[in-house]
Each structure stands twice: as C-alpha cells, then as structure tokens.
Amino acid sequence: MMIHTNNYILNIKELWDDVPEEYLSHKERYENAIKKAFIVLKVLRQLHTGNIQITDHRTPTNVYSIQDGIFRNVNPLLIHIGLFWSTIAAQASTEQQAEWLQPDSSMIGTYVQTELGHGSFIRGIETTATYDSTTDEFILHTPRLSAYKWWPGGLGNTANACLVMAQLYINGTCHGLHIFLAQIRDFDTHKPLPGIKVGEIGPKMGFNTADNGFLGFDNHRIPRTNMLMKNVQVLRDGTYVKPKHDKLTYGSMLLTRVTLISDLAYQLSKAATIAVRYSAVRRQSPIKSNEPERQILDFVSQQHKLFITIASSHVYRVVGLWMWNSHKRVTADIHEGNMGQLPELHALACCLKAISSRDASALVEQCRLACGGHGYMMASNLPQIYAYTTAAVTYEGEYTVLLLQTARYLVKFWRLAAEHKPLPQNFAYFEDYIKKNFEQWRNSPEGIIEGFKAIVAGKTKAAYDTLQCNLRNGREFEEAWNMASVQLTNASEAYARSLLCEVFWKETVQLSTKVSKSLAIVLEQLAELYLMYWALEKHGDLLLYSTISRNDIEALQSRYEELLALIRPNAVGLVDAFDIRDEVLCSTLGAYDGRVYERMMEEASKSPLNEDVVNESFHKYIRPVTMKNKL
Ligand SMILES: CCCCCCCC/C=C\CCCCCCCCCCC/C=C/C(=O)SCCNC(=O)CCNC(=O)[C@H](O)C(C)(C)COP(=O)(O)OP(=O)(O)OC[C@H]1O[C@@H](n2cnc3c(N)ncnc32)[C@H](O)[C@@H]1OP(=O)(O)O
Ligand SMILES: Cc1cc2nc3c(=O)[nH]c(=O)nc-3n(C[C@H](O)[C@H](O)[C@H](O)COP(=O)(O)OP(=O)(O)OC[C@H]3O[C@@H](n4cnc5c(N)ncnc54)[C@H](O)[C@@H]3O)c2cc1C
C-alpha cells in the first residue's frame, strides 16, 4: 500500500485526544499515551517490512515530528526506538543484531544506565554482572539501594527488556562498565521475572508519559551471549577480549548527544512559530498615542526576544547536521580500526550538547514570556515544550559535567601551545594568542568569529594558568582541576559559541550561493543577527580578550538593531517556513489561521470545571461558610 505519512497518521482517529491530556490523571495519561504509541509502532513496523510505503520524503523526521504532535508530552517508546534499538545496532555483534533486531520482535526495550546513587559519574555505577563459567551465564545484581537503576524511560510499565550498564566481573577481576541485554518481564503476561523488582518513579516536571522507572536485580541470570559483543567479548572460558578503545561502550551517549542538537533545533522552531505568529496577531497599545494599537511584533524589544530564537533554530539545524556527518565519518573510521578522531568528536559533542540544550531551554522560556499571560496556558503548548527542552540540559550528560569534558580537550591543546609544540590547524589561534598576533578588530561576521576565538584562547589560558598555579601551590591535579572548574567551564562554553558562529556563518555563506538572491539575503541576515547578538551579549569578554573598542561595540549595536528592522517583514514567513502543521504545534496561540482568541475560548470550554454551571463543591464547602448566618 502506498501512503502519505502525514495524512495516513493524521487520519487515525484514536491518535487524537477529545479531552486535552492535562485533564487526565497520571495513570490515564500513561494509558492514553501507550495506546497511541503502539498504533504508531505498528505503522513504523509496516513501513519497515515494506507492507506500506511512503510517498513523501524525509521519512524518519516526518514520522518523528508527527508523533511529537500526537504525544503532547513524550512518546513512551522514545527510548525503545531512540536508544534501545540504536545501541543494539551500534554495539551488538552481527549475530546478536540478526537475532534481536527483528521487526516483529516481542521485545520492548529501554536503556538502563543511571542509578539512584550515580548519574554523571558512571564509573561509580554499582550494578554488577558476574560471569559464572560453570553455567555460561552472567549474574546481574543490585548490591544496595543506591545501585537501583532509576530514570530509564519506558522502564516503569512498558518495557519487557532492557540494555543494562553494569560492572563486569570475571574471576574476581572488575573489567569496568559493559552493556547487557536482560529480559525483565514475561513477554506474554508482562509480569516481572523472578529476581526483578521494577516500577515507575512518579510524576515529573515533564516527560510524564515516558513512564521513567526503577529496577533492581536479585542475582538475575542471563546467557553469556547477552553481553553486547561487537567491540568487546567474553569467551566461553571467561577470557576477556578488550575493546580497541575503552570508551566505545559510551557510544550510545555520544550518538544521542549528536542527535539531540537537531531535536533541540526542532523544539526551538516550534516555540518560535508559536510566539512569532501570536505576536503578529496580538495588538497591545499604540506606539504613537494618536495611532491604533500595534502588533506586539512591531515592538523592537519583542523582535529582540524572538528573532534570536528563529536564528538559533537554524544554527542548531545546521550544526546538528554538521555533527551528524562528522559522527558518520568517525564511525566509519572506527569500523576500520582508526580511533584517532574519537576524542575530538566527543569533545565537540559534549560542549555542543550542553550549550544547545541550555540555549534552547532559555529561548523557549523567552518565547513563553514573550506571549505574556497567554503563554502561561498549557493550551499555548509552550509550558510543555519548555518542560521537554529543559530536561535535555540534564539527561545524556549534565551541562557542567559535559563542559568539563570539553575543557580537558582544550587544556591539552593549550599545554601544547604553551610548550611551543606543534598544534593542529584548528587550534593555530592558540599560538597566535600566545605570540600576541592579535588581528585588528573588524565589525563583520568574520571579525566576530576571530573575536570569539580570541575569547576561547584567553579563557583557556586563564583556566590553565589557574590550574598551574594551584599545582605549584601543592594541590593534587584533581583538586587543582576542581578549583579551576568555573574558569574551565567558561572556556568550554566560549569554545562552543565560537564553533556555532563559525560553522553557521560558513555554511550559510555556502548555501547562499545555491539559493535565490532574495532568499540568500534573508539567510545571511539571520546568520549575521546571530553573530551580532552573541557579540553584544559577550562584549565584556571581547573587551577583555580581543582588540574591540567601545566605538566598535556601539557600531555593532546599531547594526544589530538595523537587522531586527530588516528581518521584521519576513518574520512570519520565516516561521511559516518551518512548516509545522497545526496538529503538531498543538497551540491555541500559534495556529496558522491566527484565530487565537476563538481557539482559546474553544479550549477553555473543554475544562471539566465548565461541565456544571454550579460545581458541587459550592454546596459542600462554600455555601455552608458564606451563607452560615444567613440561612
Ligand atoms: C514512534 C517514534 C518515531 C521515531 C522516529 C525516529 C526518528 C528519529 C529522529 C530524530 C530523533 C531525535 C530525538 C532524540 C531525542 C532523544 C531524547 C532522549 C530522551 C532522554 C533519554 C535519556 C537518556 C539518558 O540520560 S542515558 C544516561 C546518560 N548518562 C550520561 O550521559 C552520563 C554522563 N557521564 C559520562 O558520560 C561519563 O561519566 C563522563 C564522560 C562524564 C566521564 O567518564 P569517565 O569514564 O569517568 O571518563 P573520564 O575519566 O572523565 O575521561 C577519560 C577519558 O575518556 C574520554 N571519554 C569520555 N567519554 C568518552 C566518549 N563517549 N567517547 C570518547 N572518549 C570519551 C575523556 O575525554 C577522557 O579522555 P582524556 O584524553 O583522558 O581527556
Ligand atoms: C527526563 C529524564 C530522562 C532520563 N532518561 C534516562 C534514561 O532513559 N536512561 C538513563 O539511564 N538515565 C536517564 N536519565 C538520567 C540522566 O542521564 C541523569 O539524570 C544525568 O546524567 C545527570 O546525572 P545526575 O542526575 O546523577 O546528576 P548529578 O551528577 O548528581 O548532578 C547534580 C549536580 O552535581 C554537579 N556535578 C556532578 N558531578 C560533577 C563533577 N564531576 N564536576 C562538577 N559538577 C558535578 C552537576 O553539574 C549538577 O549541578 C534521565 C534523566 C531525566 C531528567
């Protein structure tokens, strides 16, 4: 059968709620989400087996964005598809993949790593997998409360299998963290298997349909062949065959960090669409007292809040794709046994995941605030987008922890520069900074990019000097590192920003040669706006580390304001171009037809508190008090 994904899925009636999910209980919400998730999964399986075929392009992202509208919150199968499958595909041997990745598999899985006691410091994970050579099995065990797995999405009620990260023990020797496939519930009855204690962790700020769960093992046995064995093996006699790089086990986190950048671009495009469309409809106060009230989008301060969100969505779309291609390249190299590019990819993924999630959550919140009171309504969908987006600052590597990983990489290159050793081309600017080869400031995108590199060099130098000073004062390295950690994270943040500016500007200039002149102008305006915005935000750093002057900063400010005026006529067109359907946007404020007030009233009428003209609590509680002496 040939289908058009959008229309096919949008026409499945059971996928769309009559009652907004905010009115459902925790339990009802989950049950409703599960109903929908399995309808979508069935479609995906039919797509996979070729029973149905798609006539529209961009298949995975299409399905992803449509399912995003179906689940106002989160698809409970997100981790099954996004992490369980992809980890097996990346880390299981060919034979294991052939067995486990069947399209009609009974397994519904999740990715189980974090414990009550350890999330960031994964070497501290306490769950053990001990090899028993007499039975050719691993024994999974949770030695204490802090070792209980806690957080995995879909674990609470949905999953019957999982990939577990545990410390591998063979003959009393610990070989560190490895990944194991464990069945946890009976495929038929869905009851937890003997030795498994599993449940859901309770309501959260968002992700309330993801049934995040807890899990404990009581000497639970799995076959030896359930360890993911593409990169590392345990043989029948207990021989341990080491991986080519000891961080290959962390590969799923690396991949998800890369993927997340694009996902956050998409979340930003939703928030920008809602806030810009609403700002075009909403009128509040005249600008000149004798004129009619103006669209709030005409207030320059409103443009300042919103246009950076549009630009940032494009930045993360472009940089997300750039990272995706790098990941593909490095993975191909790893297949050939060449691990050389892995540290750089890890360092880039860490800081870009950290900054993209932090930017996205701050900008989504800015869009919500830019919609005034109405942005606070759940029906605007902005609170849900915020709750979803802000979680990304924490999961898949907490913000600061990831920035500190990138700092290790920066410090390594600074040390080379300080010792006058050869540097790779992309860090040649460290040497220029040391030699004080400062460029004359240019008020242009290229000049700003150079300025940001000077900030990276200056901040890395400051952090490095502090580190050295702490060492000279007799501190151990780890302690000296901790004492310098504020400066180290600052350096990483600056590094991410310089990458974002450079990649976005270069890619935009290249793209501009391939599109119409009028489109090229708008794309370059957006890219320039992004660079100017951040140059102004970081003007203090530019004053400290580059050759910028006060006059230059004033000129940047004028150009920035000019850009806001230039973008204003295209603002609505720019968000329409994100091409997000109303059914996916789920927002009274952001729908394409602009019927904001009508939609708000329609949504309010769905409130159960409007079902009765007089709520029964009036008779039970209010009247007895207010009418007490008057009856
Ligand atoms: C129906 C649905 C339809 C779907 C259709 C599909 C279409 C899909 C399309 C789009 C999908 C996009 C959606 C994506 C959205 C996903 C949503 C996800 C939901 C949430 C899920 C959340 C999951 C989780 O959170 S899982 C748990 C994650 N946990 C963490 O991230 C822990 C963080 N901690 C760490 O990573 C580590 O502890 C550490 C790196 C901080 C430290 O590790 P350690 O071993 O201690 O190492 P250290 O001593 O610091 O360093 C030693 C050297 O190792 C280097 N290194 C560290 N890590 C790596 C690595 N990964 N790779 C390479 N090298 C690494 C490090 O740099 C050191 O090197 P050096 O040279 O010594 O400096
Ligand atoms: C919505 C959501 C979904 C999730 N889904 C999953 C899942 O599917 N599977 C899974 O396994 N996990 C999942 N997680 C868990 C997630 O990966 C962890 O919460 C995350 O890695 C952070 O770890 P933590 O909670 O232990 O924070 P902590 O590490 O305890 O962080 C607390 C504070 O300590 C600071 N800190 C910690 N270590 C350092 C350090 N070395 N240096 C400086 N500061 C430090 C942090 O910066 C932070 O400010 C999910 C979490 C959330 C919120």
The count of β-strands is: 13
Could you say which structural class the secondary elements and strand pairing correspond to? alpha/beta
**CATH fold annotation of the largest domain:** Butyryl-CoA Dehydrogenase, subunit A, domain 3
* CATH architectural grouping of the largest domain: Up-down Bundle
Q: How far is it from the N-terminal to the C-terminal residue, by CA?
A: 71 Å
Instruction: List low-confidence stretches.
Output: none
Counting structural domains, the number is 3
Domain Acyl-CoA oxidase C-alpha1: 250-411
Cofactor: FAD
Protein name: Acyl-coenzyme A oxidase
Organism: Bicyclus anynana
Write up this protein:
Pfam families: ACOX, ACOX_C_alpha1, Acyl-CoA_ox_N. Belongs to the acyl-CoA oxidase family. The longest helix is centred in the middle third of the chain and has 36 residues, at 300-335. β4 (128-132) and β5 (137-141) form a beta hairpin. The mean pLDDT is 95. The termini are far apart. The protein is an alpha/beta fold and 631 residues long. It has helices at residues 5-10, 26-49, 59-70, 78-91, 94-100, 251-281, 300-335, 342-370, 382-391, 399-418, 428-434, 445-472, 477-483, 485-512, 517-537, 539-545, 550-567, 571-576, 582-585, 596-604, 616-626; strands spanning 2-3, 53-54, 111-112, 128-132, 137-141, 149-150, 161-170, 173-183, 196-200, 213-217, 220-223, 233-234, 240-241. It has three domains: 2-73, no CATH class; 91-243, Beta Barrel (Butyryl-CoA Dehydrogenase, subunit A, domain 2), CATH 2.40.110.10; 261-421 and 430-573, Up-down Bundle (Butyryl-CoA Dehydrogenase, subunit A, domain 3), CATH 1.20.140. It is globular and about 90 Å long. The structure holds ligand LCNEECSX and flavin-adenine dinucleotide. Residues 79, 111-114, 119-120, 151-153, 207, 212, 391, 394-398, 400-401, 404, 485 line the site of flavin-adenine dinucleotide (FAD). Residues 40, 44, 60-61, 63-64, 67, 75, 77-79, 81-82, 111, 113-114, 120-123, 153, 247, 250, 253-254, 256, 259-260, 263, 342-343, 346, 395-397, 401, 405, 408 line the site of ligand LCNEECSX.
